[in-house]
Model the fold of this input.
Amino acid sequence: MIFLYGVFFISTGIFGITLSDISLFLLLGRSILSDCKFKIKINKYDIFLLIFIIASLMPGLIYSSESYFDNEAFILSYGKFIIYCIAIIFIPQMLYKDKNKTDKILINSLKYISIFSVIQFISYYTIPQIDILYNQYATTYGVFRISSIFSEPSLLFYPLVIYFYLITSKVKINRLTHSLIFCQTLLSLSLTVYIVYISGIALIYIDKSKLKKLKIIPVLIVIFYILYNSVPIIQVHINNLITLNPSSATTRLLGGFEYAINAPFCGVGLGNVENYYHYNLNEMNLRFLTTRGTVNNIIAVVKVFSGYIGVISFILFIFSKYYKKCKVLLKVIVISFFSWGNFNTAGFFFMVILLEIQRLKFIDKEKGYEIK
Done:
């Protein structure tokens, strides 16, 4: 279970393998070795996952001789993809079996990351000369990246997803952890992090159907309004959303969808999203360019590499299996889809693992018992 600490390191690694990848692989190995202790249950909705796996294989069979296609990159990426898909079947059973320890590790990890992030942000704002803690760039846009746990502040949405998993799973979190998460979110000055945090809080209160508690929403809106009018960087982020200049987040978001529409019906293949973009940029005549072919959108990137059949089966799998039993957490995760495109990573699939753990918990509650 100690390997679970490593799943947060989605930006730290070498040769394309992150610490979160290694941690997930080790957790998978542990869960497979523990298979004799519990039954692996295949859900009827997993048929959509199987279709998705097959659809993602098709580009490798159809376009392997095309000039843009990198067969080695496809094989390595597809191999990782298969391991991830196996992981979301095996690992949730093991983690749910010892869910108290799982929740404790997740809470401790959130504390450590939040403390370190807050220290980094305070250091950045007060002593910018200390470049050990961060790596500043593009100062004309007021943008900076953290060069330690996460490659940029917007990726702090990832621990937020785990935070909302714990809340929606009714795991007790002390005030210190809540305060650290709030400070981390506030100091990030990332619009992505703000949107995920505010959306998550709003969805939780709405789901409780206690309208009097909806008073938190106008409070959050007021806080955001104050930030917008007092922090220039936030104004830059908002302006980049509503304008269509090359650096605009909206331009990159639209560019991802436009690229997805212009990609082949069967997709371009895992590991070849950027290759296809560079080889066929002139033929596609895109009005909204992406960042060097990087698609910052999960739905769009799935369509690009697996085609229409792949993206439809992916959406059907996610929503048919988890919407009824993990509605709030699923909505938070889907909101995060539109801010990053790192689909074939341990970080993304660990979010699916959390959905599956919560689904198992819901099913056991329906039956009148729960693993303690």
